[in-house]
Design brief:
- There is one protein chain.
- This protein is α/β, with parallel strands linked by helices.
- Helices cover 42% and strands 15% of the residues.
- The longest helix is centred in the last third of the chain and has 22 residues.
- The protein starts with a helix and ends with a helix.
């Protein structure tokens, strides 16, 4: 009986067609709308409990509780209740779902959700019925699209954009920064506007005090480091990230991005080789050891909490510490890069920083017994009110244009960067899983090279660095071929 139910749900997955690509400024793809009667027929199931898998930050910061409490209050008369699935956020739905162990609704990054979509473990959604449909840019919808038999199916609803952001401490700026680090007089520190200035400031800060650093970040993290390659013409896969036979991390002048990373690492210490900085960035930014780092918007509240604790430890009251932390912790978009790729070049020519990003969103498991109730939950969780609440509590960058504009600041800038292509979304195909290990290996080796003696350096010139990138692409290609 259970297998028959799953088969029926899978059939529904095939016949339900949803138009998912759209924004106010772009033409929507032509699709054929199916009835989806086997799954989403508008008939709410009663006396059901929906298990929702959220991310750990939303749970620990209290947002998820507010969400399910609000939903349960709104739907208490309809016999529908949402609860925490109480499962690891990295649950493998493909293996666990068919056996009944898995959530009904899950919140994940686009590459994870679309991996499940290819195996028909999640349901296509009638996204045109959502109030957020016209508020989300085409780029974000595409991250959740798949095509079959000439039809476009959308398997998730974008909630927030994940892209590297610069975090820095305003109260760690030199007292005379306006005269020494604001050449254009725009009241914004130069070191958060260009990587060239950040490198110069980092070098100077460490020289003045050997125990302190300027910019610090683990280079081994492919997610963050690859953006430097993209900025100079590199890419992940060809044909808008749909062709894994074309691997482009060494394309264009990507080698300049590797050279920038090499130079930045020279102003750090050997902690940049492994995960050390990634792990201690929250505490080290809080205690003043680091001036700046990069991370994603969804951990803003974690950085803030660490800084509040540091101020309290130094004698501030809880309220004073909270106020001071909000004033001094700044999250902003990435600095511009030197066109030449040299952080010591005297030219002022710059290019925009590009970065790898993702879109986190909600999806519905193919194995749920209450698809219509789940659909109501996803609509509720992605409406304007709840997305605004999520942004306020967690510091996310909303995928909704209306919410991003109202919040303003960095959220609006992230939205704009996504819209104009400066955020390269992780491919929504299974082959993307093969880029991480070869990429990490190359960036670890690059970081190690900074601390090798001159006679043992591997990347002595641009040609050697270019070859390192090419070898990385070959390793990814081999991994993909082995997978197939």
């Amino acid at each position: 009986m259970k297998k028959r139910m799953i088969a029926m749900l899978m059939l529904g997955c095939m016949v339900l067609t949803a138009a998912g690509c759209g924004s106010k400024s772009s033409a929507k793809e032509s699709t054929t709308k199916g009835t989806g009667a086997a799954v989403f027929n508008g008939k709410l199931e009663s006396d059901v409990t929906i298990r929702v898998l959220e991310n750990d930050t939303a749970i620990s910061k209290g947002y998820f509780k507010e969400l399910i409490d609000a939903f349960n209050e709104a739907y208490k008369d309809k016999g529908i209740k949402a609860v925490d699935a109480n499962m690891d956020q990295y649950l493998d739905l493909a293996n666990d779902g068919p056996y009944g162990y898995g959530p009904d609704v899950l919140y994940q990054a686009n590459d994870v959700i679309m991996k499940y979509a290819q195996g028909k473990h999640i349901l296509p959604l009638p996204v045109e019925d959502f109030d957020c449909y016209d508020q989300i840019p085409e780029t974000a919808w595409k991250a959740y699209q798949t095509k079959k038999d000439g039809k476009t199916y959308t398997c998730g609803v974008p909630v927030n954009v994940q892209a590297p952001q610069l975090y820095y401490r305003k109260d760690l700026l030199p007292k005379d920064w306006e005269s020494t680090w604001d050449k254009d007089g725009d009241k914004v520190p130069d070191m958060v506007q260009t990587w060239k200035s950040m490198y110069a400031f980092s070098t100077e800060r460490h020289k003045e005090n050997a125990k302190t650093y300027g910019y610090m970040k683990s280079l081994n993290d492919m997610y963050f480091s690859s953006g430097f390659l993209f900025s100079y013409g590199g890419y992940i896969f060809g044909k808008e990230n749909t062709d894994p036979s074309d691997i482009g991390f060494a394309a264009g002048d990507a080698v300049k991005g590797a050279e920038v990373l090499y130079q930045l690492a020279s102003a750090m210490n050997e902690d940049c080789i492994d995960d050390t900085i990634t792990t201690n960035a929250y505490s080290k930014l809080a205690d003043g050891t680091y001036f700046a780092t990069i991370s994603t918007p969804d951990v803003y509240s974690t950085f803030l909490g660490e800084l509040e604790k540091e101020y309290e430890a130094k004698g501030d009251s809880k309220d004073a510490a909270e106020k001071k932390a909000k004033e001094n912790l700044v999250m902003t978009t990435l600095p511009a890069l030197p066109k030449s790729g040299s952080l010591t070049d005297q030219s002022d020519e710059t290019i925009d920083s590009k970065s790898m990003g993702g879109v986190n969103g909600y999806a519905i498991s193919s194995y749920t017994k209450a698809p219509n109730a789940c659909l109501e939950f996803v609509k509720f969780a992605t409406d304007y009110k709840m997305i605004k609440k999520r942004a306020e509590m967690l510091g996310i960058a909303p995928a909704r244009e209306d919410t991003a504009k109202e919040i303003g600041g960095t959220s609006e800038e992230i939205y704009k960067n996504l819209d104009k292509g400066n955020i390269i979304l992780m491919p929504s195909i299974t082959e993307v899983s093969q880029i991480w290990t070869p990429g990490k290996t190359f960036f670890i080796d690059l970081a190690k090279d900074v601390f090798r003696s001159d006679d043992k350096k591997k990347y002595k010139d641009e040609a050697a660095m270019k070859q390192g990138l090419t070898d990385m692409c070959d390793q990814i290609r081999e991994a993909i071929t082995t997978l197939q």
